[in-house]
Amino acid sequence: MEMDALWMVALTATSGFIIWWAKSQHDELKRVTILLNRTREEYVTKPEANTDISRILDRLDRLSEKLDRLMEIKT
Q1: Which of 20, 43, 51, 75 has the fewest CB atoms within 10 Å, i.e. is most exposed?
Q2: Which has the closest alpha carbon to 12: 4, 24, 23, 2?
Q3: d(CA 32, CA 63)
Q4: What is the average pLDDT across 12-38?
Q5: Segment 31-65, tens digit of pLDDT
Q6: Quick one: pLDDT band at residue 1, thresholds 50, 70, 90?
């Protein structure tokens, strides 16, 4: 009988720990999801993203032109 009681205590403690761990993981995932959504809402808007992409593409075009000129000079 004593062994049964110890086994039940061990199972209860293990189950309690697993449930507590799963809840803490769920809460952390929920918190990170909220922070991610706030970051997206606060820092990136579609017009800003389009402007930034346009600037990057312009710079890449200028870099391409410079490389073309450099290749012409070397040949």
Answers
A1: 75
A2: 4
A3: 39
A4: 96
A5: 999 999 888 767 767 888 899 999 999 999 999 99
A6: low
